[in-house]
Design a protein that fits this description.
Blueprint (H helix, E strand, L loop, with lengths): L8 E12 L1 H11 L3 E17 L4 H7 L4 E12 L11 E10 L2 E10 H8 L4 H7 L13 H17 L3 E15 L6 E11 L11 E2 L6 E7 L5 H9 L9 H9 L12 H7 L4 H7 L18 H11 L1
Antiparallel strand pairs: 1-5, 1-9, 2-3, 2-6, 3-4, 4-5, 6-7, 7-8, 7-9
Length: 314
């Protein structure tokens, strides 16, 4: 797998998810295609390894829709439509995704895949960076003060939920677009979403279909309000937000008869997050453009990407 995405992330935003069938996808793109352009890395194959407790307490906690929730994963990026392979020296991202009062706060640091897995297994961050260095022609890699801060925050999460272990891999073919009007809105379309609990190595197997009819998962990411043209287009296409987390949906598919676990809110979760109020939270976490309603599912810059997207919505 080849990775060229940003080395680390530290931001907050609102994220809303939508589930689209092929007709809804085409209708929406016909309405807004001219307002969109390719994001920096527009066509990706993404595999995310989620960590959880042996009794799946993290995802159960998340599905209770609490005031504060978090997920922990290791993620690698490849090229859409290409056969994937895992290299222990390839770049990977350790990500802590937190949600508080509907706002998503994402913390991410870059390591080699082998180093990321060692860190998640308990190795000290700087020891893992030294023992398993990552190289990339597209990223400046190294243990910066920001990375050390993020590593400490992720380690606190790991310690809070012990014991944690690899639990599930979710893979998607993703098209990433952004608005061209300066509004800063990003839109990702996930095609051919799959999950597996075995094997848990990257690039090893396709897994089970996540969406029953291979629907497309749209996620709109914005730091403020949607532009009016997007609001009107979603309304015209009758596309509405849904409660849909890929990890939660996959967990329910994997364990359909598993009763929900109860998990009382822990004061330590909010204390460690520094979430006494929203101002504290903010301080703490300091395409080929689609333009028509033709029968083509999407326009992509490469034939391989086009085949993947067209297959996904066929």
């Amino acid at each position: 797998m080849q990775t060229t995405h940003h080395a680390h992330a530290n931001f907050k935003r609102k994220e809303k998810k939508y589930v689209l069938n092929q007709g809804e996808y085409l209708a929406l793109m016909g309405l807004i295609g001219e307002k969109l352009e390719e994001d920096e890395y527009a066509y990706s194959h993404i595999e995310s390894l989620y960590y959880d407790t042996p009794d799946w307490r993290m995802i159960n906690r998340s599905m209770e829709k609490p005031l504060y929730k978090e997920k922990l994963r290791v993620r690698v990026y490849g090229t859409m439509g290409e056969t994937q392979s895992a290299d222990p020296d390839q770049v990977a991202f350790v990500e802590l995704k937190k949600k508080f009062k509907g706002i998503v706060y994402k913390r991410r640091m870059v390591m080699s895949l082998q180093g990321a897995l060692a860190f998640m297994d308990g190795m000290d961050y700087e020891e893992a960076m030294a023992a398993y260095p990552a190289t990339s022609k597209d990223l400046e890699l190294g243990a910066t003060w920001r990375d050390r801060q993020i590593a400490a925050e992720i380690r606190a999460c790991i310690d809070r939920w012990q014991p944690l272990a690899p639990a599930m891999i979710i893979a998607v073919e993703r098209m990433s677009l952004r608005t061209n009007d300066g509004s800063g809105v990003r839109m990702t379309f996930d095609f051919d979403s799959r999950w597996r609990t075995q094997p848990l190595g990257f690039g090893e197997a396709e897994g089970e279909q996540l969406m029953p009819n291979n629907e497309i998962i749209l996620e709109i990411k914005a730091q403020g309000a949607y532009p009016l043209w997007l609001v009107h287009a979603l309304d015209q296409a009758k596309i509405y937000p849904v409660s849909n987390t890929k990890y939660g949906r996959a967990y329910r598919a994997a364990f359909p008869s598993q009763p929900a676990l109860t998990h009382a809110p822990q004061a330590s979760e909010l204390r460690d997050f520094g979430a006494r109020d929203e101002s504290t939270v903010a301080a703490a976490t300091t395409t080929a453009t689609a333009t028509s309603t033709s029968t083509t599912a999407t326009a992509t810059s490469t034939a391989a990407a086009s085949q993947v997207v067209n297959k996904a919505v066929a």
